[in-house]
Amino acid sequence: CPLGIESTVLAVDNEVRLLRPGGLTREAIVAEVGGLVESLPEPTDGAPISPGQLPSHYAPSLPLRLEATTVAADEALLAFGPDLPEGAALSLNLSPSGDLAEACANLFTMLHQLDRPELQAIAVMAIPRRGLGAALNDRLRRAAAPRD
């Protein structure tokens, strides 16, 4: 994982389907193959078709609160970009300059560092959904999903 997140997974038959976003962006795939089918094939046995497709995956112990614009004193902050809300018990910034590749490289290490028992949650600032941001948001959405 040279970018810090797992690889992109595609299903290719008569069409190309994106099963898991990763280091190869949607934009790069579309530029190469001309388009992607948006609907995923249904698994015949209820199992995921690809690694990383479970609703809850990549999850720390603490709950994640996505798209945070504020942070409480008992929360950690996973920041992105130069403008951070104040008040977090602990803050780490995926990329102070807003670089999505840098954010990918830091994601799992920083989630692990913020996952502390004395905190109540991890507030995660919004990350653009373009380019590598699609993969980052996919991992964060799964990490924030309810756990079974």
What does this structure look like?
The chain has a four-stranded parallel sheet. Strands 1-2 form a two-stranded antiparallel ribbon. Strand 1 (9-12) and strand 2 (16-20) form a beta hairpin. The longest helix is centred in the last third of the chain and has 15 residues, at 100-114. It is α/β, with parallel strands linked by helices and 148 residues long. The model has no long low-confidence stretch (mean pLDDT 87). Helices cover 24% and strands 16% of the residues.
Name some characteristics of this structure.
148 residues, alpha/beta, 4-stranded parallel sheet, two-stranded antiparallel ribbon, 3 helices, globular
Average pLDDT, all residues? 87
End-to-end distance, in Å? Answer: 28 Å
The number of helical elements comes to 3
Structural class: alpha/beta
Strand order of the largest sheet: 3-6-4-5
Broad shape: globular
Number of strands: 6
Provide the helix percentage.
Answer: 10-25%
What is the N-to-C order of secondary-structure elements (H for helix, E for strand)? EEHEEEHEH
The main sheet comes to: 4 strands, parallel
Low-confidence stretches: none
Rg over CA atoms, rounded to whole Å, is: 16 Å
Share in β-strands: 15-25%
By oligomeric state, this entry counts as single chain
Which helices and strands occur, and which strands form pairs?
Elements: E1 9-12, E2 16-20, H1 26-33, E3 64-65, E4 75-79, E5 90-93, H2 100-114, E6 121-124, H3 133-144
Parallel strand pairs: 3-6, 4-5, 4-6
Antiparallel strand pairs: 1-2
In short:
This protein has 148 residues and is an alpha/beta fold.
